[in-house]
Amino acid sequence: MKAAKLAVICFMVGCIFSAQGHQHHHHSHGEGVLFVVHDQDKWQVKFILPAGNIFGFEHQPETAEQKQVIKKTLAKLENSQQLVTFNGECKLIYAKFENPFEHHTHHAHQDLEVEYSFSCDKPVSNVTVTLFTWTEAISVIEAQWIAEQAQGVAELTATKPYIEWPL
Asked: Could you report the per-residue pLDDT of 17-30, keeping only the tens digit for each?
């Protein structure tokens, strides 16, 4: 039964991430998107952020300084607490992201996609976006979540950077 439930949740996560993240997301400077999905003790988080707001440019890096900015920012993303924290005791299982400039040679708008998976030993009733503490270039994040206790949407900002629900 657990395997069937997990398969359904994984399918829903895949549908949400692909449909919302690619088809309905419009690139808008200063705005990001966050998806949060919960099943038992597992949490999946996905951010879609304008590269121009995270790196300071969206074109192919042209200078050594721009290449260094990419390197430092990608290293920062290895630490999930730079983007998101939970109020429960959670352990990062994996982080997935790539250099958005690596496979794109044109000068179109670029997005940075960051995915994290966590295992939490204690119940979680609060997810906080910490990204606002190190970049003022993102002013709002449209969040969507599905948890066992609740589901919904919210607009997160530096003054209200969290989603919460009762346990």
From this structure: 444 444 444 556 78
Q: Cα 132 from chain centroid?
A: 12
Q: How would you classify the pairing of strands 140-146 and 31-39? A: parallel
pTM: 0.82
Ranges of H-type helices in the chain: 2-18, 51-55, 64-77
Q: Which residues contact 127 (CB under 8 A, 6 or more apart)?
A: 36, 43, 45, 84, 85, 86, 87, 145, 162, 163, 164
- Tokens matching residue 123: 């119940």
Q: In a 3-state reduction of DSSP, which class is residue 156?
A: strand
49-103, pLDDT tens digit by residue? 999 999 998 888 999 999 999 999 999 999 999 999 999 889 999 999 999 988 7
* Spatial separation of the C-alpha atoms in residues 119 and 121, rounded to whole Å: 7
Question: Which residues, in sequence order, are CB contacts of 17 under 8 Å at separation 6+?
Answer: 35, 46, 115
Structure tokens at 84: 């998101």
d(CA 117, CA 80): 9
